[in-house]
Amino acid sequence: MKISYRYTFSQFTDNFIAQYYSGGIRVFTRLLGGPVLIFIGILIIGYTRQVEVGTGYYVLWGIGLLIALVGIIYFIRPGLQLLFVRSRKDEFLGSNGEAVELTLDPEAQIILIKGPEGESELPLTEILYIQHRAESTWIITNRDHTIPIPRKELTFGDHDVFISAIQEILDVNEQKH
Hints:
five-stranded antiparallel sheet, 5 helices
């Protein structure tokens, strides 16, 4: 059973942002970490008005500025990462609209992945779970990798049939254990 699709930068961006701001305690630090550090840095810089000019003033002002700058960097980090991927889009997503091809081999219990960066095998035993989203389905592996499969704009195959086949095999394997 086979499915293939062209992974666009728009799909990458949607999946990246969704993954970046999801998952445990990191959600709070990623959402609030930058603004909180910026606020603390500004408070420290504001406090320097009450300190006499001298070494302590400059040290305190420098610490406040450093904390605020770290907060700004932390706040804009996902945008910087997306800019990096955008600048090297062909390297990460394939040039000339190369398709990603996933082939399910139920006998060997693997998914063969062919993409712009090469070919690899994913044993079905490494799949932790399948997460259904509005625009795509994520296959989450025990190596903390995510394989996004878009629901629409496939070049070959049927998304729902492919995912159902994987889920069936996973359910049978789970019942065996």
